[in-house]
Amino acid sequence: MSGTQTTGSIPRFLQEGIEEVFGNSLKERDPYWSMLFDEKKSRKAFEVQAQLEGYGLAKRKPEGQSVSFDSRRQGFTPKFINYTYAKGFVVTEEALEDNLYDVALGDAKGLGRSMRVTKETVLHNILNRGFDSNYVMPDGDGLSLFSAAHINGPTNTSTYSNKLSVAAAFSEAALEDMLILIDRATDARGLPVMLEPGKLCGPSELRFEFERVIGSVLQNNTANNAINATKSLGAIREGWTTSPYLTSTTAWFLKTDAPAGLQTFTRRAMSFGEDNSFDTGNARYKASERYSAGWADPRGCFGTEGA
Do 113 and 28 meet the contact criterion of CB atoms below 8 Å apart? Predict the structure, then answer.
């Protein structure tokens, strides 16, 4: 049976003499995804969010004339589908009986770690695939998360971009360009939206460069006696983080305070179960949870592939 641990799977554990057992549990950190995604609860098979545009600019009303009336329309309706993720294993009765060490072959630690790493991978893949046109939100605008052709809304069909026009390696100048792009963002009617940049995020390879650029009082890597404008302005409100789950070594991202950006819905939290097979005596263990991840408003995150 696939996934079954027998005495043949653990031959050394049936003999005395092992000095230490390693690899079955590792130090855990706070989840990386929680710094990037807003978590919400779900009670349905899927959750739908609907774009509702605001009103356009007011018009001057000539004396004695009627007010100019406006209306609003529904836009995109991205869908978050809750999928089940699960893992299990079986331990034979003999393997449980003959194990000589204080290692619980049927404990939940290994399964728990597998589930946590799975969730990190699933959620980080939203960013990892963010420039790939094959990955879009169901019933969204039909574009990848990062695109130069996002449509503003149902009335104003002009486009906007949440990626740098030219992919750029992380630097002080490139960061300033992205901050300007965020500052110039518009709403569904094409009006300034006043986004605030939040957390800067990138792969482990950019950790030291992030610190040099964000942490420097003066401009980094120059002889200029000039201030680091990003730092002095407090432009990166939530600091920076790097994650080993980001697969590109050059892409970097800046989360904003757009209320419907990167999101994850928890339909059912992680749970564990176990039982025994009467005819074989085998013990069976499983872990599962249900959740979804994605975005509604692409303005919630800006990015670049790097260079």
Answer: yes
Handedness of CA 160, 166, 169, 172 (dihedral sign): negative
Tens-digit pLDDT profile for residues 6-63: 655 655 554 444 434 445 555 567 899 999 999 999 999 999 999 999 999 999 999 9
Cβ atoms of residues 238 and 255 within 8 Å: yes
Say which DSSP state 144 is in.
-
User: CB neighbours (10 Å) of residue 81?
Assistant: 15
| Angle at CA of residue 151, ends 145 and 153, nearest 5° | 120
Q: Residue 198 is encoded by which pair of tokens?
A: 């939040």
The encoded tokens of residue 257 equal: 């305070």
Cα–Cα distance, 254 to 96 (Å, whole number): 49
CB atoms under 10 Å from CB of 261, counted, come to 23
User: pTM for the complete prediction?
Assistant: 0.85
